[in-house]
Every structure is written in C-alpha cells, then in structure tokens.
Design brief:
Elements (H helix, E strand, L loop, with lengths): L2 H18 L7 H19 L5 H23 L27 E2 L20 E6 L5 E4 H4 L4 E9 L4 E12 H8 L7 E6 L3 E6 H4 L5 E6 L2 E2 L9 E3 L12 E7 L26
Parallel strand pairs: 1-5, 2-11
Antiparallel strand pairs: 2-3, 4-5, 5-8, 6-7, 6-11, 8-9, 8-10
Helix pairs in contact: 1-2, 1-3, 2-3
The structure holds the ligand Nc1nc2c(c(=O)[nH]1)N[C@H]1C(S)=C(S)[C@@H](COP(=O)(O)O)O[C@H]1N2 and molybdenum atom.
Length: about 280
C-alpha cells in the first residue's frame, strides 16, 4: 500500500479515536482542536497520493470528518462567562428579538480554534486591499480616533441573543476614512486570529454602529470574547463580528469568509433570518 495513503488512514483513525474518547461536553473544544489538527495533516498529505481513485476516496473521508467537526463547533458554546453583567431577558420589546432567537442573560463564548497568545502591545490591525493608503494601526494609535461607547444587541446564528451590550472602541468608518477606499471598493473581508474571516458589504462597515471594540460593558474585552480587539457589527449575525481582528481588506466583489465558504449567508441579517444560503 502507498505509504502516504497508510499515513492518512492512520491520521483518520487517530482523529476518530480522539472524538470517540471525548469524556464530556466541557472538553469539547480541546477535542475539536486535537482532532482538527490531525485532520489538517491528513488533508495536506492526501494531495500527495499518486493513485487518483485512492486520493479521491481518502479526500472525501477527510472532508466529511472536518465537516462533522465544524458542526460540533457551532454547537459547542460553553455558557456564560463568569463575572459578566446580566443582560435583560424579560419585559423586552418583542420587536428587538429576531425570529427564532432566545434571550440569554450571560455571554456565551463561541469560536473556532484556540485563543491567540500574542500580547496586546504587539497587536496591529491593517486596512488594505482597494484603498489609497494601506494603513496599520496599533491599539494605542486607534485611541487617537474618536472613542465611542455604544449599546447594541448581539444575535448568534446558533439561536442566542444578548441585549444591551455596551461596546467601547472606534468606528470602522473612521479607520476606512484614513485609508481612503478606492471608488471600486464595494465589499470587505475582515480577518482575525487564527484563520478566521467574514465578508461584509462596505456600506455596513461604514454605518455608525460598526465598531472595533476593546471594552464590553465597561470592562476590558476578555481574551475569550475577542480581546484585545474585535469587530462588532450589531446588524448582522454574530459570526460577522470577528474576534482578534488583524485585517480589514477591501474588494470590488463579495469574497466569502470562513463560515460563508461553509454555506453560511453572505449578508446574514438576523431579522431576515439569513442564516444559510
Ligand atoms: N476570530 C474569530 N471570531 C469570531 C468567531 C471565531 O470563530 N473566530 N466566531 C464568531 C461567532 S459564530 C460568534 S457568535 C461570535 C461570538 O462572540 P463571543 O464569543 O464573544 O460571544 O464571535 C464571532 N467571531
Ligand atoms: Mo455565532
């Protein structure tokens, strides 16, 4: 047997064992991380298998398992963070709650992969792509723009909504203005650690409520919620609010991000229930 093919088969077996041995939901994200790493190695190795039939067969086994892990991740939010102010859940104007969402008083944590280990002092965000001037901001540099605190609601596509979040940061619009979008720019891809991204209409990023935030409810943004810096786009499902933001790149067309490549909606308006394509 082709040695690469047996290596792939072995990686798949090990990934399956990790998933099967998963002791509890509490450890789910660790399990997903470990199995995901093996599956990524398998995916890389598959490309070198010479026999095309065997390559196709193993490639589909790898991608089926990666798809399973993606779905498990969406379901793996681990409940409210301790110490977070309780958000309102009762006596709320029903018009504020998008269809098929329930209100949560806590603040669930939800993301793919591990937290970044980079320190805030080294953090930069770059505005690039179809701009007149590529600009790179440190966290300190951002604080020279007008700092705002704005209250907004947050809606995750997995069904929870957290109302009355006070986000402190700067408007994305103000960064874009400094970079100067070219007239052909219509869309953006916002990227964040580790290999996450989401696409947005440029016009949505230019609205008053789209922020790059470093504080939530008057507390510094915790690492699990995207600290030191995250995007907040209240008018879209939460997956567009990229945590650990490193780049805003402008395009003249809509380029799918991480979840959009996996079938999620390009626009993602929660009041229109634009969950999937
Ligand atoms: N970098 C990064 N940002 C991300 C995600 C992610 O996986 N990676 N998940 C998104 C999703 S699906 C949601 S609902 C929100 C959750 O934010 P929270 O963990 O602060 O509640 O982050 C979004 N931003
Ligand atoms: Mo989400």
């Amino acid at each position: 047997m082709d040695p690469i093919a047996s290596r792939v088969a072995d990686l798949l077996r090990r990934a399956d064992e990790i998933v099967k041995a998963a002791p509890s939901r509490r450890d789910e994200s660790a399990v997903i991380g470990q199995a995901g790493e093996l599956l990524e190695q398998a995916r890389d190795a598959v490309a070198d298998i010479e026999d095309p039939e065997r390559r196709r067969a193993l490639a589909s086994q790898v991608s089926r398992r990666i798809g399973d892990l993606d779905r498990a991740l969406v379901a793996s939010f681990s409940g409210p963070s301790p110490g977070v102010r309780r958000a309102p859940t009762r006596d709320v104007d029903p018009a504020r709650v998008p269809p098929n969402q329930h209100l949560t008083a806590g603040f669930p944590v939800l993301h793919v992969g591990r937290l970044p280990d980079r320190r805030a002092g080294d953090w930069h965000v770059t505005v690039t792509g179809l701009v007149e001037r590529r600009t790179r901001w440190s966290l300190e540099g951002l604080r020279e723009l007008p700092v705002v605190t704005q209250r907004s609601d947050f809606h995750c596509v997995t069904g929870w909504s957290r109302l009355d979040n006070d986000w402190t940061g700067v408007r994305v619009r103000d960064l874009l203005e400094q970079a100067g979008p070219k007239p052909t720019a219509t869309h953006a891809v916002v990227a964040g650690h580790p290999a996450y991204s989401a696409n947005l209409d440029l016009a949505v990023l230019q609205r008053d409520d789209a922020l790059l935030a470093w504080a939530h409810d008057d507390q510094p943004l915790t690492p699990e919620h995207g600290g030191p810096l995250r995007l907040v786009v209240p008018s879209r499902y939460g997956w567009k609010s990229v945590k650990w933001v490193t780049e805003v790149r402008l395009f003249d067309r809509d380029v799918p991000g991480y979840w959009e490549e996996r079938g999620y909606h390009d626009v993602a308006d929660p009041f229109l229930e634009q969950r999937f394509r």
